[in-house]
Amino acid sequence: MNRRSFLISGLTAATTLGVGGLYTSVSAGVFEVTRTDKEWRAMLTPLQYKVMRKEGTERSGSSPLDKNYAAGTYICRGCDLPLYPSKTKFDSGTGWPSFWKPLPNAIGTKEDNSFFTKRTEVHCRRCGSHLGHIFNDGPKPTGKRHCLNGVSLKFKAA
């Protein structure tokens, strides 16, 4: 096997395993709200689609929701499910909207081993849209930091 064949085989295998590209697809699951890929693309901007359907990440500091501290509820952009109350939002200093606790029965999680690290991915439990990740460096009482992409959310004022 020459170097070229080896590299092509390796890249093909890595892409098939989901580690070759920057973004992986939302894992196959059964969700209450489903849409075709064409429907998702029609309703979302390219960045929203990349984040919500391909598990991408928006640039830190780019979301106006990061500095929003008005009373209300953060809801899923994909299906309008209420996800996080504003009373659990805090300034994590990361440049992404952060929360220490979601609403009951609002989110789902899965292990994310991308980028050679183990993290907990958080998604909308109703439509499967990628929201962000959960870390263990948040404030009391939970000690959790739900670090979310603002493009995955909409804010509904109280």
Task: Reconstruct the topology from this structure.
Blueprint: H1 3-17, H2 37-43, H3 46-54, E1 72-76, E2 82-85, E3 89-90, E4 98-99, E5 107-112, E6 119-124, E7 130-135, E8 145-148, E9 153-157
Antiparallel strand pairs: 1-2, 1-9, 3-4, 4-8, 5-6, 6-7, 7-8
Count of beta strands = 9
Largest sheet: 6 strands, antiparallel
Structural class: alpha+beta
CATH architecture: Beta Complex
Q: What is the count of DSSP helices, taking H or I runs of 4+ residues?
A: 3
Overall shape: globular
User: Could you tell me how far the N terminus lies from the C terminus, measured between alpha carbons in angstroms?
Assistant: 64 Å
Which topology does CATH recognise?
Metal Binding Protein, Guanine Nucleotide Exchange Factor, Chain A
Q: Helical residue percent? A: 10-25%
Strand order of the largest sheet: 3-4-8-7-6-5
Short description:
With 158 residues, the protein is an alpha+beta fold. It contains three helices and nine strands.
Describe it.
This protein has 3 helices and 9 strands; from the N terminus they run αααβββββββββ. 20% of the residues lie in helices and 25% in strands. It is α+β, with helices and mostly antiparallel strands. It has a 6-stranded antiparallel beta sheet with strand order 3-4-8-7-6-5. Strands 2-1-9 form a 3-stranded antiparallel beta sheet, with no helix packed on it. It starts with a helix and ends with a strand. The longest helix is centred in the N-terminal third of the chain and has 15 residues. The protein has a single domain, classed as Peptide methionine sulfoxide reductase (Metal Binding Protein, Guanine Nucleotide Exchange Factor, Chain A).
